[in-house]
């Protein structure tokens, strides 16, 4: 199983980490593409450590990394991909939590595009719910030809989820946000969402604002639950 590495940022407070935010990049990028989000959110999350692992495979496009290959010709490739890459990401999360001495409820996942697919897939299947999932410009991957009823038996935990998308996204159309939210709801997994007007396949200030506050609220709830 591949061992993931990537850039990281320790808590702004200077104290031992009390929370962990894992940033999952998109297809053809790497961890350096998202680690700057940590600096945006540190004022809201001063006790959180951030890490942005590089995906395990070189991208088939010849630059960056990928969680799994995408040709857009095979309707099954996303489902096959998240299932293949999921155990590697799960093992990384467990190792990071152990290294920092952080409990599973004080973990949050943030994913962009293909990283969003990974975040949603893994979070729903972990034995303990994470504090929050922020899915940016991505989608929930379902088995091709299967409806939400196929997801429900696979859900092991129900984390708070925020989906954010640009309404002009040319890579993953904004309809993916609503289809994902509907599929999650049908599997008894509620999700909040934010649609950024005039934004393509990227992260704007609105998504940053909502995402940061959603993470902070998720960690606060997890702390109250103990």
Question: What distinguishing features does this structure have?
Answer:
globular; alpha/beta; 7-stranded mixed beta sheet; 5 helices; 226 residues; two-stranded antiparallel ribbon
Give a structural overview:
It is a single chain. By secondary structure, the protein is an alpha/beta fold. 32% of the residues lie in helices and 17% in strands. It contains five helices and nine strands; from the N terminus they run ββαβββαβαββαβα. The strands form two sheets. It has a seven-stranded mixed beta sheet, sandwiched between helices. A two-stranded antiparallel sheet has the order 4-5. α1 links the parallel β2 and β3 (48-51). α2 (77-100) packs across α3 (114-123). The longest helix has 24 residues, at 77-100. The radius of gyration is 16 Å and the shape is globular. The N and C termini lie far apart (33 Å).
Instruction: Count all strands and give the number.
Output: 9
* N- to C-terminal distance: 33 Å
Class by alpha and beta content: alpha/beta
Helix content: 25-40%
Number of helical segments with 4 or more residues? 5
How much is the radius of gyration in Å? 16 Å
H/E series: EEHEEEHEHEEHEH
Biggest sheet statistics:
7 strands, mixed
Quick one: overall form?
globular
**Overall mean confidence score, pLDDT:** 95
In what range is the share of β-strand residues? 15-25%
Widest beta sheet: strand line-up: 1-3-2-6-7-8-9
Low-confidence stretches: none
């Amino acid at each position: 199983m591949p061992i993931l590495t990537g850039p990281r940022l320790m808590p702004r407070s200077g104290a031992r980490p009390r929370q962990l935010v894992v940033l999952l990049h998109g297809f053809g990028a790497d961890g350096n593409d998202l680690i700057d989000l940590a600096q945006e959110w540190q004022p809201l999350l001063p006790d959180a450590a951030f890490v942005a692992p590089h995906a395990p495979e070189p991208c088939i496009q010849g630059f960056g990394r990928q969680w799994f290959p995408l040709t857009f010709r095979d309707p099954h490739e996303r489902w096959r991909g998240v299932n293949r890459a999921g155990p590697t990401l799960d093992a990384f999360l467990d190792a990071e939590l152990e290294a920092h001495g952080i409990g599973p409820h004080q973990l949050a996942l943030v994913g962009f595009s293909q990283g969003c697919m990974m975040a949603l897939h893994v979070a729903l299947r972990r034995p303990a719910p994470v504090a929050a999932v922020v899915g940016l410009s991505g989608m929930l991957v379902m088995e091709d030809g299967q409806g939400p009823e196929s997801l429900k038996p696979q859900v092991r935990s129900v984390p708070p989820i925020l989906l954010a998308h640009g309404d002009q996204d040319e890579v993953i159309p904004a309809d993916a946000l609503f289809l994902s939210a509907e599929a999650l709801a049908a599997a008894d997994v509620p999700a909040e969402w934010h649609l950024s007007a005039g934004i393509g396949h990227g992260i704007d200030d609105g998504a940053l604002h909502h995402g940061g506050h959603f993470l902070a609220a998720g960690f606060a709830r997890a702390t109250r639950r103990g």
